[in-house]
User: What shape does this take?
Amino acid sequence: VSIKEIGEFGFIKKISRGCVVRPDDIIRPIGDDAAAFRTNPEELTLVTTDLLVEHIHFSRKTISGFNLGHKSLAVNLSDIAAMGGTAKEAFVSIAVPEDCPVDYLEDLYRGIKKLASEFDVNILGGDTTASKSDLMISITVTGSVPEQEMLRRDKAQPGDSIFSTGYTGESKAGLHILLNSIPAATEEFQSLLNAHMLPKPFLAEGRFLAQQKGVHSAIDVSDGLSADLMHIAEESNTGARLYYDGIPVSENLKKFCAQFNFDPVEYALTGGEDYILLCTVPPDDAENIALDYQKKFKQPLHKIGEITDLKKLEMVYSGDRVESLTPQGWDHFKSNIL
Amino acid sequence: VSIKEIGEFGFIKKISRGCVVRPDDIIRPIGDDAAAFRTNPEELTLVTTDLLVEHIHFSRKTISGFNLGHKSLAVNLSDIAAMGGTAKEAFVSIAVPEDCPVDYLEDLYRGIKKLASEFDVNILGGDTTASKSDLMISITVTGSVPEQEMLRRDKAQPGDSIFSTGYTGESKAGLHILLNSIPAATEEFQSLLNAHMLPKPFLAEGRFLAQQKGVHSAIDVSDGLSADLMHIAEESNTGARLYYDGIPVSENLKKFCAQFNFDPVEYALTGGEDYILLCTVPPDDAENIALDYQKKFKQPLHKIGEITDLKKLEMVYSGDRVESLTPQGWDHFKSNIL
Assistant: This one.
C-alpha cells in the first residue's frame, strides 16, 4: 500500500497514535497549524515545520532561489500567524543535489533572510546535506503566544461568521502561468505569479485577531479555501456554509479566468497555497472586529460564510438556494510540478 | 561552484552572516550542537534539527524502517545530550517516494516512537509530503537546560582533560559490513551493525556532566572523533592532543579490523556517526568526575587526551613522541551510500 492510496490524512491518522507520552504542558499536539506547549507560566511556545520538495512543490527551472527562499519561510510564518502568535526563531535544513550551484543557494538564503528580518525572526540553525537528486528545504519556525490568546482550529461555534483576510485562487493561477510557460507580460499576470511565489505571511493580522475578544477559531489557507474551512468544521464538530457571492475574487484572477475560460470561484475555492487566514467570530462581535481590522490594516475582512451545526460544507447561492459542497484542494501525493 | 568544491563548512560560513536580527535572549545561535535561547528566566530552550537523505545517509535496501526511525531521532537526541539538556518535543517530517510502502513508513514511526517514549519525548508534529525519488526524514527536537548548566563547544581551556563516553569507529565498521553485504553472522559483527543503525543517545550522561561543576565543554561525535574534537578546539581557540594508547577501541572493532586488515585506531579516529560524547574537564576535577560517572553509569569515562594552547591537533604516541594529526571524518558531499 502506498500513501497515494490511503491519502496523506489517512497516513497521518495511522501514525499519530501514541505520539504524546508526556502530556503535561502540551496544549496543542499534532493537528493544528502549529504545536503549542507551555515553556513559562504566561506564554506558550509554538512550533511548526514544512518540507518543500523539488518536482513536487517547485521546480528550479521556474522559481528563483530568492523566491523559493521567501516562500519556504513564508509558509511556516503563516502557520504561526494562524495560531495568533509572534514568530521567533527559524531553522533551515537543505538537501542539495550536485547540480545545484552555490549561487542558487545563496540566493535562496537571501530570500529567507530578507523575509526573516522583516518579521524580526532569527535563523538559529539547520542542517546542510547532499542529496542524490532533488533539492529539499525543511524549515522549522518557533513562535510564542499568550495562552489566553492562542487561536486554534477546533473552537468554531454554530452561528459564527466566517471571515477571510484576503483573496484565494491567485496562487493557483500563478502556478498555471508557470507550468504552462505563459508569458507574464501584463501587470495582472505578474501579480498572480507573485501570489504563488511570494506569499505574504499574515502575522500582524493574526496577532490582531488573537487579541480581539471573540475570535473563536482560525486557520491559514494552504490546502484550499474549501478544504481548510472543512478542517475547521471537522475539528470543531460543526459544519460551514459559504456565500457564493461573498467569496473574494480579485480583478486579476477574473481577468486570468476570462482569458483561459476557467471558473474564478472554482479557483478561489480550491486553489491552495494562498496563505491568507480564515477566522470565525460570533455574529455579535463580527461587525466591530471587521471595522477595527479595516481601520488598522486598510484592508477588508471579507465575510464569506457562517458556521452551522450540520456537519457538512454547503454553498449558498443567490436566492438562498443551498447546495452541498465537496471540499477540494491541492494533494501533492496526487499532483506535482514536473 | 558547487558545495562539493567549497565544502559544507565553507558553505555554512557563507550563509551564516546576518542570521541573527534580534539578539536578545539568544544564547547560542548557529554553531553548536543545538541552538539555545531563553524562554523563561531559569531555563533555556534548545533546538536541533537533522536531515537524513536516502542514498546519502542510508539505503532502504540495507536498513529497516524501524532502525532508520530510531537513528533519525537518535542523532537529534544526541545533540541535546551534547548541550547537557533534557529532550522534550520532536517534529518529524518525511518526503516519501511513490515506491515506498506505507508498511516501511509505519515501521519507521514505530522506531521513532519507541525511542521517543524511552526518553519521555513527545512527537508533536511534522509534515508529510511526496517526493519524486528519494526518501528524506527531517527531525527537529526541542529540549531544555538550566542556563548555568548548559554545555557548549567553545569553553575548553588549555590543560583540560578530554574524556569520551564510549567507543568510536564501530559505526563505520557497521557501515562497511552493510555496504559490502558481509554476512553479520557473528555476535561481534551484529554489534557493529547495531552501533551503526541503533546509536544510543547519551542523554542521561550529558545531564550528569552538565550538573558537575567543572565540565568546560562538550560535543557529540557525529563527524568523527578527530573532526569533532577539532570543532571544540577551533571554537575554543585552543588545540588538542590525543593519547594514541588512550583511544578506546572495542574488542568487536579489533576483531573486525584484524579480519579485514584495517587499522582500528584509524577507524576510531575518523569513523563518524558514533554519537558518544566528548567533554573537557579541568585536571583538578577530572578524577572525581570520572569516578562519579563510573559509579552512576557502570561505564568508564575514557580519558583520551588534553586541551593545549597550540591551535592544532596532535597525537601523543608511546615514548611521548608527538605528531601533528589531520582531523578527518565523514563528508557526505564527498561520499555517499548508493
